[in-house]
Request: fold
Amino acid sequence: MDEPTEDAIFEAQAALSSLLGYQLRRATAVMLGDLAERLGGLGATPAHYSAMTVIRAAPGINQSAVGRLIGIQRANMVALVADLATKGWVRRQSPDGRGRSYALSLTAEGEAAIHRLREAVNANEALFKARLVDPDGTGLELGRLWGDDFPDR
Reply:
């Protein structure tokens, strides 16, 4: 079979580029790639940052609730919290003394780390907002895709 012509490749790319879902998937991949690189340089992942943000906002929350809020399955959440504890960023306390459920809170090291991580997240957000939002601050409103008024499918 012959290689496709440049015209055929251009047509294929144009067909995909006209699809909103394709554009959103590509934009998400690029944005998350940039974020992962920024956070990776600080020894963290986007999941670390998300979990720490929830824990900071709701000290004493259990890991199941954190997982539900950030969309991480239970088994993955166990590993994530263990990693955060190993880094010294999160403290796990068993309120019932049996170790079946842990109340989570940030340590002093975790508080310092989340400030550094937030700077990386803010830089990522600024980079992509500058490309997506009009200079006057109006423009794309992605929140409309999952807000309360969006019909469930």
In short: Helices lie at 6-17, 20-40, 46-57, 63-70, 74-86, 108-132.
